[in-house]
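Our consortium's second objective concerns turning raw sequence data into structural hypotheses that experimental partners can test. To show how far this objective has progressed, the report includes one record in full. It was chosen at random from the queue rather than selected for favorable results. The single chain below, 141 residues long, was entered without modification.
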Amino acid sequence: MSSIVDVFNIAASGLAAERLRLQTIATNMANAKTTRTAAGGPFQRQIPTFEATPVDRFGDELDRATSRVVVTGIGSDGRPPIRVYDPSHPDAGADGYVAYPDVDIMQEMVDLMSTNRAYEANSSVVEATRDMALRALDIGR
């Protein structure tokens, strides 16, 4: 049977996942014009990967249906860089083209708004659960 602690754990996993997603978006936006990285070449847009894991694999049907979020990794999207002709740039190749990351700021802003909404939703779950627990304690007095 799911407990109030499970609800807090599920919401907390969602909050942590959205915080990591926010950090990834911030990294993408900050490096939108980075033409040189330690690995060589332009920055690659990063994307976190999430996975749902059951709260209790051996519980009743409700326990098996409820899941928490686990971040399985952060990978690059693999899109090729955008080539811009600028022979005066220090990272220009012999042909005069510079490779810039294919990071679309508008897409990152949309992802940022989506992340914000998901974070707010998980935060509301935590607040509602806390309020319900406090009301239950008041009934018991």
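The partners drew two points from this record. Residues 16 and 133 are 22 Å apart (CA to CA). Helices lie at 4-30, 61-65, 105-139. Both points have been shared with the crystallography group to help prioritize constructs.
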